[in-house]
């Protein structure tokens, strides 16, 4: 806790001096906002809304106590859905407004990337400037590189990846890419791009000369929209398909880049990451005011267009900056400017977290989400006011996009909207400038999604599903119902399938098509790209307009799915289907309790798998402040881990411990054995501190153990309270 001498008193609040100085000296200049007026207004919002935030959390706790008690006094009756549902309505867990008449959202001034384009989406920890820039700059990517460097192209038959260029592998990449071009921008008369020896432009149309001397053109001429270079010998040709751009880059006639390619296509760039969520929540480890200022400073750099990151690659020092826009000549001869970067959302923390960056008059921490709303919106004024370098900008429609996670039901969503309105008034912004993305990741939001959307129908731009946090909340909400199924089996349960379908159905019924994103969750295995290409096409097929991927490379490959599926046409099909009218509530309330006995071996395997996963993530979080990373699992397969993955693993073990499938001694013994495994997996990391040297004194090991042993007592099963306390403990010791 900071001493009073390190704080600035404004009315009834005490602001950490480092935060106050950052806002006054770095953020406020150029915003046209008077410093005294900002801090006075911030004090009013914090004072007025902090009690409301606390009251909402108390409602959560009260509902959970009642649900726990019901399961204890009605053992096994959770299968009587009618009785269980009536109970949830009676206590107010299910909203009485859920089934009111239909409505449509009315959100306006939404950028095209959100409203009427479908593509992959990245989530990146804002605390890491290098990673953030890499994600923001990933709007355009090389299809050649993505294919050559991943298992989408098999290494069989002499096509191995090596330190030098493997021509045989390269030929497979070229063939794969030509097939993609034939499917996405087909030529007339069934001609193939593989047989083209020259592209040129005549009378505003693209012409292609074939190997046999014939000349063909695009089957849909309007797909050609621009070029770079000369009409007769362009070195870049731009196309549009399903709302996404494709760019063919051609070498000069004397360029020996690919002598076996008759047209000498050097690369094919595709638009992939149209939107990126820069994250202040699940993927970061921000536990004190210094961490928060670091996050906010990076957001300021993004909003001003000045963010940079230097790093060493081999012997070279590289400075990464935001990419400029891309300039072409349109088919009519005018300049055509396309964005060079993703459109940015910022994800705030949920209502649960509190921060000592500002204290109340009673020296109590304030809700961190209120601070996020105030400071990140103030910073975003630099984008709205045009205080950016060159052509670099974020929104072109004058909106600020905020993802709000971990909200429980319509009352909490309404509170967020009220908070946003107060911030808009303080900063003299038009109503509904602040747009909201509602993450459908808590059970009480899922079963009341229609009512939640109603509360923000004028500012909604995003809903999404996500297996991990949603499953974590499913486990915690039903903690007392019985021992629940294994983690892998959760993907086959009735509630989860209903959840994924219900989200899209309600989103479309509420008019999100061509107004807001409907999103799907993360592909968590970064090195299994062939499997992702095989499976993740299911997301656009469901009518979802975006889905999360773990890297820019994965985004390029997932973008291929949006060329195969016209998502908006698929949404029209769904809107006319009977499936969209189905009520999924009964399925959503079907609790995934184990119905068959597990063997000792099955139980131990689940215990070891989850223990290793928890330890592998937590040790980096506590010791190195890494909130999201690729962590090897028990079989040494890299998995993307963040607090959502930690939540489900720790909650499942807490549930099994609560119902006697495992014992405390068994947990502790397994955790110690798995600590040796994790230590081995991190042996090459110079910054890593082994856990097995001293289990009793190792903060990371004790944090991981606490997440399991006290998991059933954590509010909503969240991991943040333990992680933050233990991270602060580690920082104090070092």
From TrEMBL:
<keyword id="KW-0558">Oxidation</keyword>
<dbReference type="InterPro" id="IPR048357">
    <property type="entry name" value="MSG_insertion"/>
</dbReference>
<dbReference type="Pfam" id="PF01274">
    <property type="entry name" value="MS_TIM-barrel"/>
</dbReference>
<dbReference type="InterPro" id="IPR006253">
    <property type="entry name" value="Malate_synthG"/>
</dbReference>
<feature type="active site" description="Proton acceptor">
    <location>
        <position position="347"/>
    </location>
</feature>
<dbReference type="GO" id="GO:0006097">
    <property type="term" value="P:glyoxylate cycle"/>
</dbReference>
<dbReference type="GO" id="GO:0009436">
    <property type="term" value="P:glyoxylate catabolic process"/>
</dbReference>
<feature type="domain" description="Malate synthase TIM barrel">
    <location>
        <begin position="344"/>
        <end position="590"/>
    </location>
</feature>
<keyword id="KW-0816">Tricarboxylic acid cycle</keyword>
<feature type="domain" description="Malate synthase G alpha-beta insertion">
    <location>
        <begin position="165"/>
        <end position="241"/>
    </location>
</feature>
<keyword id="KW-0808">Transferase</keyword>
<dbReference type="InterPro" id="IPR001465">
    <property type="entry name" value="Malate_synthase_TIM"/>
</dbReference>
<protein>
    <recommendedName>
        <fullName>Malate synthase</fullName>
    </recommendedName>
</protein>
<dbReference type="InterPro" id="IPR044856">
    <property type="entry name" value="Malate_synth_C_sf"/>
</dbReference>
<dbReference type="GO" id="GO:0006099">
    <property type="term" value="P:tricarboxylic acid cycle"/>
</dbReference>
<dbReference type="Pfam" id="PF20656">
    <property type="entry name" value="MS_N"/>
</dbReference>
<keyword id="KW-0479">Metal-binding</keyword>
<feature type="active site" description="Proton donor">
    <location>
        <position position="642"/>
    </location>
</feature>
<dbReference type="InterPro" id="IPR046363">
    <property type="entry name" value="MS_N_TIM-barrel_dom"/>
</dbReference>
<dbReference type="InterPro" id="IPR048355">
    <property type="entry name" value="MS_C"/>
</dbReference>
<dbReference type="Pfam" id="PF20659">
    <property type="entry name" value="MS_C"/>
</dbReference>
<dbReference type="GO" id="GO:0005829">
    <property type="term" value="C:cytosol"/>
</dbReference>
<keyword id="KW-0329">Glyoxylate bypass</keyword>
<feature type="domain" description="Malate synthase N-terminal">
    <location>
        <begin position="21"/>
        <end position="80"/>
    </location>
</feature>
<dbReference type="Pfam" id="PF20658">
    <property type="entry name" value="MSG_insertion"/>
</dbReference>
<dbReference type="InterPro" id="IPR011076">
    <property type="entry name" value="Malate_synth_sf"/>
</dbReference>
<dbReference type="GO" id="GO:0000287">
    <property type="term" value="F:magnesium ion binding"/>
</dbReference>
<dbReference type="InterPro" id="IPR048356">
    <property type="entry name" value="MS_N"/>
</dbReference>
<keyword id="KW-0963">Cytoplasm</keyword>
<feature type="domain" description="Malate synthase C-terminal">
    <location>
        <begin position="602"/>
        <end position="700"/>
    </location>
</feature>
<keyword id="KW-0460">Magnesium</keyword>
<dbReference type="GO" id="GO:0004474">
    <property type="term" value="F:malate synthase activity"/>
</dbReference>
């Amino acid at each position: 806790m900071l001493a009073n001498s390190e704080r600035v008193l404004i009315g009834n609040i005490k602001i950490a001096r480092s935060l106050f100085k950052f806002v006054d000296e770095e953020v406020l200049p150029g915003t046209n906002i008077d410093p005294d007026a900002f801090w006075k207004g911030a004090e009013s919002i914090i004072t007025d809304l902090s009690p409301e935030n606390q009251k909402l959390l108390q409602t959560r706790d009260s509902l959970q106590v009642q649900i726990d008690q019901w399961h204890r006094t009605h053992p096994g009756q959770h299968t009587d859905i009618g009785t269980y549902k009536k109970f949830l309505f009676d206590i107010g867990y299910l909203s009485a407004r859920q089934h009111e008449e239909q409505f449509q959202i009315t959100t306006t001034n939404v950028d095209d990337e959100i409203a009427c384009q479908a593509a992959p989406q990245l989530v990146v920890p804002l605390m890491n400037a290098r990673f953030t820039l890499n994600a923001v700059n990933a709007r355009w990517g090389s299809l050649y590189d993505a294919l050559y460097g991943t298992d989408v192209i098999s290494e069989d038959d002499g096509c191995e990846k090596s330190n030098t260029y493997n021509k045989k592998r390269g030929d497979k990449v070229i063939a794969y890419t030509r097939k993609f071009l034939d499917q996405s921008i087909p030529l007339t008369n069934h001609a193939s791009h593989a047989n083209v020896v020259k592209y040129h432009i005549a009378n505003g149309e693209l012409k292609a000369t074939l190997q046999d001397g014939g000349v063909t053109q695009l089957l849909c001429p309007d797909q050609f929209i621009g070029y770079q270079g000369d009409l007769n010998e362009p070195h870049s040709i731009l196309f549009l398909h399903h709302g996404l751009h494709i760019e063919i880059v051609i070498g000069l006639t004397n360029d020996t880049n690919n002598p076996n390619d008759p047209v000498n296509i050097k690369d094919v760039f595709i638009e992939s990451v149209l939107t990126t969520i820069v994250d202040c929540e699940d993927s970061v480890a921000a536990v004190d005011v210094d961490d928060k200022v670091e996050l906010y400073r990076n957001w300021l750099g993004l909003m001003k267009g000045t963010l940079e990151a230097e790093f060493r690659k081999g012997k070279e020092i590289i400075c990464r900056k935001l990419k400029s826009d891309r300039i072409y000549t349109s088919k009519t001869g005018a300049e055509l400017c396309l964005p060079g970067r993703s459109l940015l959302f910022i994800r705030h923390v949920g209502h649960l977290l509190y921060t000592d960056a500002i204290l109340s008059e009673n020296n109590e921490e304030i809700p961190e989400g209120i601070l996020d709303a105030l400071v990140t919106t103030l910073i975003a004024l630099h984008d709205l006011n045009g205080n950016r370098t060159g052509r670099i900008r974020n929104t072109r429609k004058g909106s600020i996009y905020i993802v709000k996670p971990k909200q429980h039901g319509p009352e909490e969503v309404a509170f967020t909207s009220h908070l946003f309105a107060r911030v808009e008034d303080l900063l003299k912004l038009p109503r509904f400038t602040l747009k909201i993305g509602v993450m459908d990741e808590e059970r009480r939001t899922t079963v009341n999604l229609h009512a939640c959307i109603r509360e923000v129908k004028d500012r909604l731009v995003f809903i999404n599903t996500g297996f991990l946090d949603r499953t974590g909340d499913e486990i915690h909400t039903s903690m007392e119902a019985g021992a629940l199924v294994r983690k892998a089996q959760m993907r086959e349960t009735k509630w989860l399938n209903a959840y994924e379908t219900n989200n899209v159905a309600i989103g479309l019924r509420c008019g999100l098509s061509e107004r807001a994103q409907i999103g799907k969750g993360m592909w968590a295995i970064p090195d299994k790209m062939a499997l992702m290409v095989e499976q993740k096409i299911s997301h656009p097929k469901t009518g979802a307009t975006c889905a999360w991927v773990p890297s820019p490379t994965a985004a390029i490959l997932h973008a291929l799915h949006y060329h195969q599926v016209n998502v908006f046409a698929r949404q029209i099909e769904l809107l006319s289907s009977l499936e969209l009218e189905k009520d999924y509530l009964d399925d959503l309330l079907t609790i995934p309790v184990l119905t068959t006995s597990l063997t000792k071996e099955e139980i131990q395997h689940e215990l070891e798998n989850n223990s290793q996963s928890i330890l592998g993530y937590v040790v980096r979080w506590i010791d190195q402040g890494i909130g999201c990373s690729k962590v090897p699992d028990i079989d040494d397969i890299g998995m993307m881990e963040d607090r959502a993955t930690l939540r489900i693993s720790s909650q499942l073990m807490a549930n099994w411990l609560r119902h006697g499938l495992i014992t405390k001694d068994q947990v502790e013994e397994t955790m110690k054995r798995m600590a040796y495994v994790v230590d081995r997996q991190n042996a090459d990391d110079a910054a890593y501190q082994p856990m097995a040297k001293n289990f009793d004194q190792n903060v990371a090991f004790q944090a991981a153990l606490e997440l399991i042993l006290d998991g059933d007592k954590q509010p909503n099963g969240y991991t943040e309270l333990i992680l933050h306390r233990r991270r602060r403990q580690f920082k104090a010791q070092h």
